[in-house]
């Protein structure tokens, strides 16, 4: 356990001593701020129209108009951002030769993998924390429901963790960061749009494809529903990703 | 303390290490010698648990490296060919991280890091980033990393590469000093290093052990004949005929004429000491005898002899088939025995 924490700490630290953490978190905050303002202006216009047409008595549901679209937008931004974070995880260690230090020190492969996973996850969690400020504004001026927002964040966290596990797997198979980033992004995008095919294939394949699609499972979370089906999906996705990473690291050993 | 049993490592069809066996006793320094690409690094990587062997076993301090990797690795300090430094960490941060992953208790870390930095004389760059260090410092920080957790076994892949002469001497001294309570394998292709630091030498070529002995025995044993080296001032005359008349002399080869006379190598049958008679012959001719010494085959020559003999044998033997694939060729088997390096 302590070894995992040591590796996680080292990973997280490496993001902060390089510009990576500041660039990623900073630009993520800018994008999120933009989405916030854009959504807000739409909501303001909508509520003014609603007032003019005599529906003023009903207040507008902030959860539906602000929080849910914001979290969905965030999910898409993560699709672009997280591959950049995970790309270096193994690729850089291989390139600089430090992987030799890790693999010959008294750590198990699993400890190294989990450490790296948690390190990236921590930085990702920090990105989500930044969005808390905007949510705070909504709570300050309006009265959104807390539950659906929290479940939405849980969904984001699980989805991001799944992205990270794919990223680690890809990074463990190459020593080139650009290659790792591009492949990760392509795989994630593929998983994302898997459900598009669902309509044009047979019913069985349709069920399988929509079940595999990462996006489908996120929807319920953003509506405020925590379904064990979806939690199970993400958790197994993460576990499979990390398991395959362990296999990839082992294979790499044998190949030398 | 270290035992390598019939280790073979293949990368696809290429055999990097072929049935290598040797052992190192506690407190010994073993020099692992071979040309580039001979399989030194691969053997070391197998020993440190970085990669599993295709065949055979590696045992460190009683633990099989692949059965009980964590226990074996706890006993091992490893300096890879290029020091595994994190460029964005300072030297102190880096060593502290290494201390952590080696399970050194928090209270102990500071002292251990300081000791390791002092021993490898890198304390003056403690707060510099590893990425900004010169090659010599990088190498020594790598060494500090290897000795930090005070492991029983040190595996050093070319520890003096990239150092300046003064640092090389310091590093050799440090390695000798460490040998007391550590068992050390160091690889190198610099031969004087071996004769100066190591108690035993394993010479490896094309993945096979071609000789294993003490440096002294190796240099002594490989004399097929005895040779003495002379520097004589003959005033332009050719000394060959006169020297060949000396009883026991079997051959004379002339060297360069330099500022201190002409260099001459006089060969004689093994066991016969012809120095007195040769000196007498030179003096009786009225030539100036400027220098006379028994020529010992240097490790360089032995090394070249061993590694090229092997190549020639293989070339002569096969011609068409790939020589590395079969272990059954008699020349290699004889050479791989602990006492039988091939004669010249």
Task: Give an overview of the whole structure.
The complex is a heterodimer of chains A (256) and B (344). Chain A has one domain. Helices cover 84% and strands 0% of the residues of chain A. Chain A has helices spanning 2-17, 20-52, 62-96, 98-104, 109-141, 146-172, 177-192, 203-212, 214-223, 228-255. Chain B has 344 residues and is an alpha/beta fold. Among the domains of chain B are: 2-75 and 151-220, Rossmann fold; 224-295, MTH889-like domain (Alpha-Beta Plaits), CATH 3.30.70.1340. In chain B, strands 6-7-8-3-9-10 form a six-stranded mixed beta sheet, sandwiched between helices. In chain B, strands 2-1-4-5 form a four-stranded antiparallel beta sheet.
The number of distinct helices of chain A, counting runs of at least 4 residues, comes to 10
What is the H level of CATH, i.e. the homologous superfamily of the domain at 2-75 and 151-220 in chain B? P-loop containing nucleotide triphosphate hydrolases
Q: How many helices of chain B does DSSP assign?
A: 12
Category by helix and strand content of chain B: alpha/beta
Major interchain interface with per-chain residue totals: A-B, 25 and 33 residues
Q: In which range does the helix fraction of chain B lie?
A: 25-40%
Q: Biggest sheet of chain B: strands, sense, closure?
A: 6 strands, mixed
CATH topology of the domain at 2-75 and 151-220 in chain B: Rossmann fold
Any idea what the shape of chain B is? elongated
**Radius of gyration of CA atoms of chain B, rounded to a whole number:** 24 Å
First-last Cα distance of chain B: 34 Å
Structural class of chain A: mainly alpha
User: Which range does the strand content of chain B fall in?
Assistant: 25-35%
Elements of chain B, N to C (H/E): EEEHEEHEHHHEHEHEEHEHEEHEHH
Mean pLDDT of chain B: 81
Helical fraction of chain A equals: over 70%
Radius of gyration of chain A: 20 Å
Q: Outline the biggest β-sheet of chain A.
A: none
The count of strands of chain A amounts to: 0
């Amino acid at each position: 356990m302590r070894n995992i924490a040591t590796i996680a700490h080292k990973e997280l630290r490496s993001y902060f001593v390089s510009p990576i953490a500041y660039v990623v978190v900073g630009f993520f905050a800018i994008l999120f701020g933009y989405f916030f303002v854009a959504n807000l202006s739409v909501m303001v216009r909508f509520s003014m129209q609603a007032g003019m047409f005599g529906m003023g008595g009903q207040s507008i549901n902030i959860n539906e108009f602000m929080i849910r679209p914001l979290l969905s937008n965030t999910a898409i931004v993560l699709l672009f951002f997280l591959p950049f974070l995970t790309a270096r995880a193994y690729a850089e260690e291989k390139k600089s030769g430090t992987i030799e230090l890790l693999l010959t020190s008294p750590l198990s492969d699993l400890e190294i993998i989990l450490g790296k996973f948690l390190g990236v996850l921590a930085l990702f969690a920090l990105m989500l924390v930044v969005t808390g400020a905007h949510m705070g504004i909504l709570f300050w001026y309006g009265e959104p429901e807390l539950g659906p927002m929290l479940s939405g964040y849980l969904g984001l966290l699980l989805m991001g963790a799944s992205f990270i596990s794919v990223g680690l797997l890809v990074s463990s198979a190459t020593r080139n960061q650009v290659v790792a980033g591009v492949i990760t992004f392509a795989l994630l995008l593929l998983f994302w749009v898997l459900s598009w095919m669902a309509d044009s294939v047979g019913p069985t394949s349709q069920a399988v494809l929509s079940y595999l699609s990462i996006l489908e499972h996120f929807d319920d979370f953003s509506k405020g529903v925590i379904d064990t089906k979806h939690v199970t999906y993400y958790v197994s996705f993460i576990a499979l990703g990390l398991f395959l990473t362990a296999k990839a690291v082992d294979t790499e050993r044998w190949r030398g | 303390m270290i035992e390598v049993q019939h280790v073979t490592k293949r990368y696809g069809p290429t055999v990097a290490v072929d049935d290598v066996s040797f052992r190192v006793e506690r407190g010994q320094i073993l020099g692992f010698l071979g040309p580039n690409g001979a399989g030194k690094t691969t053997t070391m990587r197998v020993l440190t648990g970085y990669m599993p062997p295709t065949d055979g076993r590696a045992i460190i301090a009683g633990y099989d490296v692949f059965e009980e990797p964590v226990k074996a690795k706890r006993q091992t300090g490893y300096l890879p060919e290029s020091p595994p430094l994190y460029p964005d960490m300072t030297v102190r941060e880096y060593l502290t991280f290494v201390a952590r992953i080696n399970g050194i208790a928090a209270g102990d870390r500071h002292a251990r890091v300081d000791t390791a930095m002092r021993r490898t004389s890198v304390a003056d760059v403690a707060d510099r980033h590893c990425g900004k260090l010169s090659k010599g410092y990088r190498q020594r920080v790598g060494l500090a990393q290897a000795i930090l957790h005070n492991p029983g076994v040190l595996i050093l892949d070319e520890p003096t590469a990239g150092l300046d002469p003064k640092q090389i001497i310091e590093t050799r001294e440090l390695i000798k000093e460490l040998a007391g309570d550590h068992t050390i394998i160091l690889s190198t292709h610099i031969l004087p290093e071996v004769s100066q630091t190591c108690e035993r030498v394993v010479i490896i070529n094309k993945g096979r052990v071609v000789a294993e002995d003490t440096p002294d025995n190796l240099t002594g044993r490989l004399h097929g004949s005895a040779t003495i080296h002379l520097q004589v001032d003959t005033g332009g005359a050719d000394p060959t005929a006169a020297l060949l008349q000396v009883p026991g002399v079997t051959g004379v080869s002339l060297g360069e004429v330099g500022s201190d006379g002409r260099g001459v190598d006089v060969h004689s049958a093994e066991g016969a000491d012809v120095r007195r008679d040769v000196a007498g012959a030179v003096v009786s001719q009225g030539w100036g005898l400027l220098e006379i010494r028994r020529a010992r085959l240097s490790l360089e020559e032995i090394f070249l002899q061993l590694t090229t003999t092997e190549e020639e044998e293989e070339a002569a033997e096969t011609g068409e088939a790939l020589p590395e694939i079969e272990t059954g060729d008699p020349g290699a088997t004889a050479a791989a025995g602990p006492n039988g390096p091939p004669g010249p």
